[in-house]
Amino acid sequence: xxxxxxxxxxxxxxxxxxxxxxxxxxxxxxxxxxxxxxxxxxxxxxxxxxxxxxxxxxxxxxxxxxxxxxxxxxxxxxxxxxxxxxxxxxxxxxxxxxxxxxxxxxxxxxxxxxxxxxxxxxxxxxxxxxxxxxxxxxxxxxxxxxxxxxxxxxxxxxxxxx
Length: 162
Description:
Blueprint: H1 2-9, H2 13-40, H3 44-59, H4 61-70, H5 75-99, H6 110-143, H7 158-161
């Protein structure tokens, strides 16, 4: 069944890579901007830290995964969106510790727990979003609107093969 294969494994790899890499870039940019603003003592640090980072870390993976499912990016890409904030945070702390950036506390053993917690929350949110996106695709197909699967590699139906 072409719809099932497209939803589970992905039909558009370029969109899937763009979804994951673009989200990683946005989270990285927000994290670096918040760190620089906090280090400089700027008043925008509070706004970035208190509003933008929680939005990206906790709330964005679900809707992004839903959009990815609707765009038929596949389950692995949609779930990878949930892991992105934890990987970015872990990479930021690791790089800051190796370089010796003051204010990056890589020696704190709790940072591993925080990273795992971010990953668990993000993957859960992404899974729920992915399920919502799959439901939207299937509902659109049943109701007769939406894109169907008429994309790459969809020449013919099962009836043509008999």
